Every structure is written in C-alpha cells, then in structure tokens.
Amino acid sequence: MEKLKAVFFDQDGVIIETEKDGHRVAFNSAFKEFGLDIEWDGEYYNTLLKVGGGKERIRYYLEKINYTGSEYQKNPDSYIKKIHLKKTEIFVELIKSGKLPLRPGIRRLMEEINSRGIFLGICTTSNEKAALAVEKYMLKGIQIDMILAGDIVKHKKPDPEIYKLALKKSGIPTLNAFVVEDSRIGVLAAKAAGLSVIATLNEYTIDEDVSSADIIVDSLEADGGITFGKIESYL
Question: Which of 116, 144, 147, 226 gives 20 to 30 Å between its CA and that of 172?
C-alpha cells in the first residue's frame, strides 16, 4: 500500500455550499449593477455549472443570447472581467457574513489531514480572492499548504492542468495523492491527471455521472464511510 501524502480539495460544492446561494446570487447582483436584465435561477444555473470557471460561464451565456451591448462588442474580455470582478466582491462579502456554512464533515477531515502531517491543497477554478476569503473566514485553524485558484491555469476543468500543477508544486507523486471533488468535470480532471478521487455529491451534482471516481459518497462525515483506511486502500 502506498502512503497517503497529499489530499487536494476542490472548493465550491466540496468545502462549502457556495453555488446556489453564493456564486449564483453574486452573479445576479453583479448583472444588476451593470444594468443587465439577466437573472439565473437555480435550475438554469445548474446547467451553467457544466462550464468550468466564472468568466467562462458569463462568456458562454452572453454568446448564447447573442448579447449586443456596445462595451461588450468593443472588448468582450474587458467587459466580462469587469462583471466578474464585481461578482467576486459580492461573493467575498457573502463569505464574510457567515451565511454559507462549511459542508458537514469537511473540518473533521481537514483536521485529521493536518494531524497526520499530510499535505493539504485546494484546487479551484474560483477566483483567487474568493478562495482566500474561504480560507481566512471559513477555515480558521486549518493548515492549508497550497491554494491554486482562478486563472493560474490556462485550461480549466475538465482539463487536468490544475491537478498536474498541484502535483508539480507539491512535489507529491501521483500514487501518493487523493482528490476530493463533487462534479463530473472535476472528477474527469483529476482522473486525467492520474489521481485517485473521492466524489462527494451535493444538490447540484447528485445526478451527474461521477462513476469514474474511486469512492462516491453523499457526505464527508465520518458515518458516511470516509476514513483514512478506506482512502489509502485505493492508493
């Protein structure tokens, strides 16, 4: 059996339930501030989660509706970036408010990782400011060894680039690392990087095909079956 030396966590939907009442709300508020008559409801936002990355999600939607705003037409990248920056500001304030709690079992699991001296990383397509806010306000007392977030990689999940970068920066061999994900694109990214994966399902991903994951659970709580013995048995 290979020794477990690193666990890399996705953020949204794994560490904290951010999508429906966090990112979605922040996107809608940002749209209003830019005078856009756009509101993503919960059901439609679920379909948008198939697109990895916030700016990519905005671009996909504006292209789909053939948006013709002058500023967007003049410089799409700049316009999308402005909306996303405002969305991030709003999201960070939601994190600071404490309205978005950690998912059950995540602190227990991270504390056990710390107690065993295992490398703990976060690999997310979420904006870096948002990821750092989660670390500062939601994960106090947890030792995070590495955060890879936002546009640190050119290609986002399901591309394996972020997990390949995590392996390179941590210096941990593929066979000694595990990933915790919640979505199909996240699982595909980790598996394409040659990593073992736990898929922990949530409201938005419960019906997604994550069958390629090594372990699939509804919860990261201890009674959900997640123990280090079980994780290491898959390495």
Answer: 226
